[in-house]
Amino acid sequence: MRAAAPRNRPPAFPLRSPAAKTYLRGFGNEFESEALPGSLPRGQNNPQRCPRGLYAEQLSGSSFTMTRSKNLRSWLYRTMPTVDEEEFVQDDEDVFKHVATKYDHLDGNPNQVCCVAPLFLVPCLTDILQLRWKPAPLAPDGTPVTFLQGLWSIAGAGDPSAKKGVAIYMYACNTSMKDAFYNSDGDLLIVPQTGSLSIRTEFGQLDVEQNEICVIPRGIVFRVEQQDSARGYMLESFQGHFCLPDLGPIGSNGLANARDFEYPTASFEEVQGDVKIYNKFCGKLFKKISHHSPFNVVAWHGNYLPFKYNLTTFCTMNTVSYDHPDPSIFTVLSCPSETAGESAVDFVIFPPRWMVAEDTFRPPYFHRNYMSEFMGMISGKYDAKVGFSAGGASLHCCMSAHGPDRETTERAEEAEMSPVKFEDGLAFMFETSAILKPTPQAMSCPFRDTQYKVRDVASVKEGRGR
Ligand SMILES: [Fe+2]
């Protein structure tokens, strides 16, 4: 396909719009935004000539024929269309090259840093199904590491080419990306643990910090800019899109309220010179040179958009009588599967909350789960495990038995059943119906807690009730 020729007249707008820090609010709404007044066509999507000589371009997030309630698409009005004559070429190593020999917490092996194309281990019946990691190191001082360079995959399942499965990553970075990136394989949910990220997207700017999350849906171009050291987690869902869970008998309010989700407002840049664009496609990384910035969208409208959410606005539900509810009560976002009632993946948080259950073992109960559970700690302490620290992670795979450790169990059994407010930490869980498998680098990295399973078994070795 031939690239469209530049308009044969100077643009009727400045080269960069002021950074917009305001957000549009409301999950799943149809929004519209323009960085310059009069940039958005009125009454139609693609007029013969768009205002200001812009190009109209549709970005589809669902099949054209998807039911109206799930139909996702946006129209972007940009100074140049995305298509051009340059071709993507596969390049799995270049983006990681300069950190490969210096990023010693992953042993300096390029294959252990190059992790956006995860290679999952074949599952086997060993302790790998019950794993924990100490806090991952921050990006090393004096070595610039971008978000893309600092990504490493820790676990996953499925196949992006079949649009089924998930991948789970951690990141540690300390400098802004100069390039741009988009993911053809799925939606990305980013959970900062420390440090803030300024994420420039085609639709505008999202500033995300600890206690916030953001979602960058499949295909949307973005660049992560930041000045300080940052660390966090990322979930990639190859299937569907993140949506709010049904509330059922809870009613029309509660959990993550729709009004608290924030969407960017249009802003753009017209940089001189080339921009390198990376694309992850079927687990491989490709790159090309663009002769214009991909962040050249002057106006847009639609409902297929990146967004962010502040976890402290979560309206937590819990029992007010007895017993510990299933953790699904704390679900923030879900990607549904094709099986009614079963999520491909849920994003669940364990926020500060009152615990008032009477005659109840209040920590999470011992259990074996049909779903696979990956957990991370954003801040503070976890109420069911000693030694699970902020920046750490754990994986309890499908049907892997687990539960609170001995210290927690004994404390909970002796606890007075008065109301107690847990406010010392914020943990989260990526829970998926897929059987998660750890990556080779997740198994070999020096910060894997190799004593975790040993301690866990020791904690319950004294049988009781016989
Ligand atoms: Fe669990």
TrEMBL record:
Domain (Homogentisate 1,2-dioxygenase N-terminal): give its ranges.
Answer: 22-311
Q: Where does homogentisate bind?
A: H367, Y382, H402
Question: One GO biological process from the UniProt record?
Answer: L-phenylalanine catabolic process
Example GO molecular function term?
homogentisate 1,2-dioxygenase activity
UniProt-listed SUPFAM superfamilies: RmlC-like cupins
- Quote the EC number: 1.13.11.5
The answer, when asked if Iron is one of the entry's keywords, is yes
Cellular component GO terms, alphabetical: cytoplasm
Residue ranges of domain Homogentisate 1,2-dioxygenase C-terminal in the record: 313-453
> Which pathway does this polypeptide act in?
Amino-acid degradation; L-phenylalanine degradation; acetoacetate and fumarate from L-phenylalanine: step 4/6
Q: What class of enzyme is it?
A: oxidoreductase
The membrane spanning regions, by residue number, are none
CDD domains to which the protein is assigned, alphabetical: cupin_HGO_N
* Keywords annotated in UniProt: Dioxygenase, Iron, Metal-binding, Oxidoreductase, Phenylalanine catabolism, Tyrosine catabolism
Similarity comment: family membership: Belongs to the homogentisate dioxygenase family.
Q: What is this protein called?
A: homogentisate 1,2-dioxygenase
Q: Which organism is it from?
A: Guillardia theta (strain CCMP2712) (Cryptophyte)
